[in-house]
UniProtKB/TrEMBL annotation:
Coiled coil: none annotated. Pfam families: ABhydrolase-like_N. Residues 5-106 form the BCE-2095-like N-terminal domain. It comes from Tengunoibacter tsumagoiensis. This is BCE-2095-like N-terminal domain-containing protein. Gene3D superfamilies: alpha/beta hydrolase.
Length: 314
């Protein structure tokens, strides 16, 4: 494999999965899994689904029990709802292991704290612009940093938070916007105290639900920023309806936005077009790039989009 990060491994797996090349995907992940020991549980869940999809239910259950016996667990909601596991769910052995996962999930949920991964710019300076990069739902900061870290070469300090809204091992969501905003504020305060930041150049970026939170936070001015970089953003219908009133705020006069979305990502494409339309109607700059043939996943040229997007904020 040419790419060295787990984020790129995920992208390759997603492509094989979407193409329904399940056997090839299983062979690929079993070949590469030893290179990513910190992602053992995520890889085990991929294998669980792929073994089931290739009609190897006995092996899938053995993997599930082995994972649990070693102290691991999978997200109960995913186990209960994932269509890939439909043939396993009626089995008593699966239900017993699911109950263990429920117990472990509730125990961890009571104590989990927000995480923040930080990478400093390649070159030193008296002050640094800040990019806060938010993962998508069922994501985490580690895989997000893999994909967004190249912006350090342009002089940006990156802070990648992991939400405290856990749904599985290394799998968190931003469904509670209020909690998400609170955590962004907390992380920004920590970064301000620990690094020499240029507070006139704070940008919030993200993917999917994280991109929606980035837009929501910036346009509400919950924290002072100069704009957002959003890939495949999702906002609820209620949030979209609230935007016209928010955009009347004169404090947004210097805010810029840039959005990338896939041509085949219909829901997020509609959201993106609406955000751009509303911002333009209020004379606020926001660019939209529609990636041909792309669905709801990172494109191979995402680093180019990110690099161009950041030049807006110089």
């Amino acid at each position: 494999m040419e790419e060295a990060t787990y984020g790129h491994l995920q992208q390759r797996l997603i492509q094989l999965y979407l193409d329904q090349h399940y056997t090839q995907a299983l062979e690929f992940i079993e070949q590469e899994e030893k290179r990513f020991p910190e992602n053992t549980l995520e890889i085990a869940y991929w294998r669980l689904c792929l073994l089931t999809l290739t009609e190897r239910q006995t092996e899938a259950l053995h993997l599930f029990r082995e994972t649990v016996d070693q102290g691991g667990w999978f997200g109960p909601m995913m186990l209960e709802q994932d269509p890939d596991l439909v043939t396993l769910r009626p089995l008593p052995a699966f239900q017993d292991l699911l109950e263990v996962c429920r117990q472990r999930f509730h125990k961890i949920k009571e104590t989990i704290q927000p995480e923040l991964f930080v990478e400093e710019p390649v070159t030193h300076s008296t002050t640094y612009p800040l990019l806060i990069a938010l993962h998508g739902n069922e994501g985490n900061a580690r895989s997000t940093m893999d994909i967004w870290r190249q912006s350090t070469a342009q002089g940006w300090l990156i802070g990648a938070p992991t939400s405290s809204q856990i749904v599985g091992p290394h799998s968190c969501v931003w469904d509670d916007r209020q909690a998400g905003v609170h955590e962004i504020r907390m992380h920004l305060s920590k970064l301000t105290n620990e690094y020499p930041l240029d507070l006139e150049r704070v940008v919030i970026g993200g993917y999917s639900m994280g991109a929606g939170l980035a837009i929501w936070t910036v346009l509400n001015q919950f924290v002072k920023t100069c704009g957002f970089i959003a890939f495949a953003p999702y906002l609820t219908p209620e949030e979209l309806e609230a935007l016209p009133a928010l955009l009347k705020n004169p404090d947004l006069a210097q805010v810029h936005g840039t959005i990338l979305v896939g041509e085949k990502d219909s829901t997020c494409l509609n959201v993106s077009r609406r955000v751009v339309e509303l911002m333009h109607a209020h004379h606020l700059p926001c660019t939209l790039q529609i990636h041909p043939e792309l669905d709801h996943r990172y494109p191979s040229n995402f680093p180019e989009f990110l690099s161009r997007g950041l030049t807006i904020f110089h």
